[in-house]
């Protein structure tokens, strides 16, 4: 069966510091991968998606970036965090773009 | 442009009664619809889906209804249980290659 992992589970970072969140999927090959953010009390905002290694599409302009160095690894990064980057970050995977997505446990990021 | 809308931000229901969560969409090309359930500080969990060739899909206490002419879908939970208290997201896609588009979520509170 497939599983998706995210770490860390919780992160507190000062403004201006770098960020690296990691997501890995097991039990499937060539998944579509996604990064979402949920701000407090808000819906799910798609940040990036990837259909393959080194193939990243950005959905919203911001100071975040994503990379996919391996088939089942998806990384969300920032060089300098802003207060507005605080939120709950979710990684997800799917077999096909228009099909069911399966989410990881999420990372809670607090930027102070 | 919100293509998928959940107009009720919250819903309160008594335990044992029926919970009805609603979702409207504007894109007539959508042909696949899903519901997710999300607890605080966790990733969304896939609940149930329906293809546009059907108007009803049932899985235990959960039933999804699709009204294509009205571009409306609903999730019925019966009987509702306190453990059903969560945020519910509807999502839709065009399986030909478009990704899921999520609604803003409805917080369901089931009172004992």
**Total of DSSP H or I helical runs spanning 4+ residues of chain B:** 0
**Structural class by sheet pairing and helices of chain A:** mainly beta
Mean pLDDT of chain A equals 93
Radius of gyration of chain A: 13 Å
Largest interface: A-B, 22 and 24 residues
Classify the helix fraction of chain A into a percent range.
under 10%
DSSP summary, beta strand count of chain B: 11
Count of separate DSSP helical elements of chain A:
0
**Global geometry of chain B:** globular
3D structure, described in words:
The complex is a heterodimer of chains A (112) and B (112). Chain A has no helices and eleven strands. Chain A has 112 residues and is mainly beta. In chain A, the strands form two sheets. In chain A, strands 2, 4, 5, 6, 9, 10 and 11 form a seven-stranded mixed β-sheet that branches. A four-stranded antiparallel β-sheet of chain A has the order 1-3-8-7, with no helix packed on it. Chain A is globular, with a radius of gyration of 13 Å. Classes of the chains: A mainly beta (112), B mainly beta (112).
Q: What are the defining features of this structure?
A:
heterodimer, A: 112 residues, mainly beta, seven-stranded mixed beta sheet, four-stranded antiparallel beta sheet, 11 strands, globular, B: 112 residues, six-stranded mixed beta sheet, five-stranded antiparallel beta sheet, 0% helix, 54% strand
């Amino acid at each position: 069966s497939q599983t998706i992992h995210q770490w860390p589970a919780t992160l507190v970072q000062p403004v201006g510091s770098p960020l690296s969140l990691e997501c890995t999927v097991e039990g499937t090959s060539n998944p579509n991968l996604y990064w979402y953010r949920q701000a407090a009390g808000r819906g799910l905002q798609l940040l990036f998606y990837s259909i393959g290694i080194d193939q990243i599409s950005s959905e919203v302009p911001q100071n975040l970036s994503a990379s996919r160095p391996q088939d089942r690894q998806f990384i969300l990064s920032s060089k300098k965090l802003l207060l507005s980057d605080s939120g709950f970050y979710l990684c997800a995977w799917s077999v096909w773009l228009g099909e069911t997505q399966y989410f990881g446990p999420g990372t809670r990021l607090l930027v102070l | 442009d919100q293509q998928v809308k959940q107009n009720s931000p919250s819903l309160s229901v008594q335990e044992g009664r029926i919970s009805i969560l609603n979702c409207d969409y504007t894109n007539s090309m959508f042909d696949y619809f899903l519901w997710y359930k999300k607890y605080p500080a966790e990733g969304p969990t896939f609940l149930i889906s329906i293809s546009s060739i059907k108007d009803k899909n049932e899985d235990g206490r959960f039933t999804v209804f699709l009204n294509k002419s009205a571009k409306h879908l609903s999730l019925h939970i019966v009987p509702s249980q306190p453990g059903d208290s969560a945020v519910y997201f509807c999502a839709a896609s065009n399986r030909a290659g478009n990704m899921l588009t999520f609604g803003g979520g409805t917080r369901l509170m089931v009172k004992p």
